[in-house]
Amino acid sequence: MFNISTQALFSQLLVGLINGSFYALLSLGLAVIFGMLNIINFAHGALYMMGAFCAYFLLSIAGLGYWWALVLSPLIMGAFGMFLERTMLHRLAGLDHLYGLLLTFGLALIFQGLFQNYFGSSGLPYAIPQELTGAQNLGFMFLPNYRAWVVVFSLAVCLATWFAIEKTKLGAYLRAATENPSLVRAFGVNVPRMITLTYGFGVGLAALAGVLAAPINQVRPLMGGDLIIVVFAVVVIGGMGSIMGSIVTGFALGLVEGLTKVFYPEASNTVVFVIMALVLLVKPAGLFGRTA
Questions:
Q1: Residue 178's pLDDT is what?
Q2: Does 101 fall in a domain?
Q3: What's the alpha-carbon Rg for the chain, to the nearest Å?
Q4: Residue 27 included in any domain
Q5: Highest mean pLDDT among 18-27, 177-186, 191-200, 264-273
Q6: Structural contact between residues 42 and 34, judged by C-beta atoms closer than 8 angstroms
């Protein structure tokens, strides 16, 4: 019925895995921020874009290449995220989620507008590091080294984050602080500082995804806006605040999107939202979400 070559099929699956890597990292950051802080962070796409630009600036101004950017960009953007939380977002504590959504949406428009004003809408090139150029011949397809690195590294970061939050004492404190901050304070934990650090960590994950995406998608002011709606759909499908839900759903929906481009390209831009609608009809809390 379908006249599709094996190479085309596996190529689209690879594209799906790459997109799934970005979906997973970004939705993981959103899940951490929402699960720990109860903030719907609509600025996440803009912060992802700023992470890519941070890598570009480190290279063009400071002469620091990809490997330095992979470390410094998440740290710089994480510090910027903590500044945002301390100066703006913490004032919304205890208020309806809508206020946080509106504030972060406004911040996203400001950041995106500023970068678009100075750099336009066209992409700025960012080279693949020399160590990751080339490709491996698998027989049925060529696997670019950099794309393989992105998938493996993203998965490792996602699993490490899940382990830190779900299986360590620090993660237990984080989860407890969202439900009973007074009890956590009784153990001598500085809850406001923990909240600030958690938001910074979530922003750092977005910046990390931006650095990984820069050599593939170029550095563009609109790169976050193109992605954030899909990422929010991933978070909703996986379950708001669910760490494992974000990881599994991000990679799975990337693969589904890739397969859809092979068998029914017209639906590739909407398949994620169709799945979201179906999941919400069957399980409103999401696949991995907990019902209240």
A1: 67
A2: no
A3: 19
A4: yes
A5: 18-27
A6: no
